[in-house]
Design goal:
single chain, alpha/beta, 4-stranded parallel β-sheet, two-stranded antiparallel sheet, 9 helices
Length: 232
């Protein structure tokens, strides 16, 4: 089998989604060099991280962390584009599993009861065919051995893309777009909201506006990437 795989790799070489270098047989999606050197936030080791502070006064989070730090035109952006625009669903799940290893080692989110990926509206989901945040959440859920739900948080309004919108415009664009289904299931639960990239945090805040009606609910946030400077 390894001989066949080696032969196929000559005809259809696999490449790193971050740097485009050809992958060795033992590498998956991301080369070892990028796995080591991609800009990790390590926010899961900080009770009060820059991402947590970005939501201060807006969303009362228990914890906020992201696997990577986002840089425009950087390798993390390339990973996100591969997931979103090249339909690399397996890559999103793979990143979720990698991040879960770090989170497990630090015992972060050990008290989480349920993982909720930020949902897409049904119209956008039909066009795209998948939800990148859900795929990332699947990898996290598997690695953390936590339950994930895709029906408790519903996107009831379709919105225009957040790209190129200013901070206040992003909030206006997502105001009132989420509803909670079967709210009684979430009473007193610690929920981990999962998104692909957090920029202004407007989508997370809109999710909280829907979830805060639930008694004694607690919320944390995890994402693939965090664009720190865009909060300034």
């Amino acid at each position: 089998m390894s001989v066949i795989n080696d032969f196929l790799s000559l005809i259809y070489p696999r490449h790193c989604e971050a740097c485009s270098r050809n992958l060795y047989r033992h590498e998956t999606h991301i080369c070892n060099h990028c796995r080591i050197n991609l800009p990790r936030s390590n926010y899961h080791k900080q009770a009060v991280s820059p991402m947590y502070m970005a939501f201060a006064g807006r969303v009362p989070l228990i914890m906020a962390c992201s696997y990577f730090l986002y840089e425009k035109s950087g390798k993390v952006q390339k990973l996100l584009h591969a997931i979103k625009y090249q339909e690399q669903q397996e890559l999103a799940r793979y990143i979720g599993k990698l991040y879960a290893e770090d989170l497990q080692a630090a015992k972060t989110f050990s008290g989480v009861d349920l993982i909720l990926p930020i949902p897409l509206h049904k119209n956008k989901l039909k066009i795209r065919g998948f939800n990148q945040s859900e795929q990332f959440a699947k990898g996290l859920a598997q690695g953390l051995q936590k339950q994930m739900s895709t029906h408790h948080l519903k996107r009831v309004m379709d919105t225009k893309t957040q790209t190129r919108k200013k901070k206040y415009e992003r909030w206006e664009n997502v105001d009132g777009i989420f509803e909670v289904q079967e709210a009684s299931d979430l009473y007193g639960k610690h929920i981990l909201l999962v998104d692909d990239v957090v920029t202004t945090g407007a989508t997370i805040e809109a999710s909280w506006q829907a979830l805060k009606q639930i008694e004694e609910v607690k919320v944390s946030v995890a994402s693939i990437a965090f664009a720190d400077r865009q909060f300034n």
